[in-house]
Every structure is written in C-alpha cells, then in structure tokens.
Design the sequence.
C-alpha cells in the first residue's frame, strides 16, 4: 500500500499491526506513511517512541531531521545532522546509505 501511494490505508494497516503485535518496525513504517501523507506531527510522535537502543534509532533520527526541515523547524534538525557528520567516518553502514555532501547540503538548508 505504501508503494502504491495509499498512505492513509497503509497507516491504518500499520496501526492494526501495532495493536496486534507491537514492534518498532511497524512503528517506523507507520511513521514513513505519516510523512508521505504529510501528517508530520503523527510521524514525530512515532519517531520519538523509537528508543536509542533500537536498531531503528538512526533511521528514525534521519527521518525526524527530514520532518523538522519539512515543517520549518530547521534548528531541531541541525543537531541530528551535525551528529551524523561527527560520526560519519566511523560508521561504514551509514556511509553506504548517504554521501557526506548530502548531509552538508541538508545542513545548509536547515
């Protein structure tokens, strides 16, 4: 449903899945659906619920930075992006996902 751009329906299905089997993977996917449907406050609520100990935390933080920029809260995105730059060279997985220049570009607009 998410790929077919039926974000509202996807959000409902992820909500049902969370009720039946709470896990952060469903929460992350629902947050993505909220973002795609421009329901940014709901997305932030879901993203805030993903703990730092979760394997999804870094992805949640990255999406949170994008949401902050989208809603004009650029200052809230800056610490997340700066942290990414600070740890960039130490993080091989992150290097595969993002080019350093794209983080600098995001900071420029934040």
Sequence:
């Amino acid at each position: 449903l998410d790929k077919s751009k039926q974000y509202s329906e996807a959000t409902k299905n992820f909500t049902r899945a969370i009720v039946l089997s709470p896990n952060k993977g469903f929460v992350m996917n629902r947050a993505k659906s909220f973002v795609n449907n421009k329901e940014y406050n709901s997305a932030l609520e879901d993203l805030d619920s993903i703990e730092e100990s979760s394997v999804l935390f870094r992805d949640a933080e990255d999406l949170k930075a994008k949401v902050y920029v989208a809603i004009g809260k650029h200052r809230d995105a800056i610490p997340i992006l700066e942290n990414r730059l600070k740890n960039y060279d130490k993080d091989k997985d992150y290097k595969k996902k993002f080019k350093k220049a794209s983080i600098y570009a995001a900071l420029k607009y934040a």
User: Anything to note?
Assistant: The helical segments are 7-20, 24-36, 40-48, 57-70, 74-87, 92-97, 100-109. The chain has a mean pLDDT of 85.
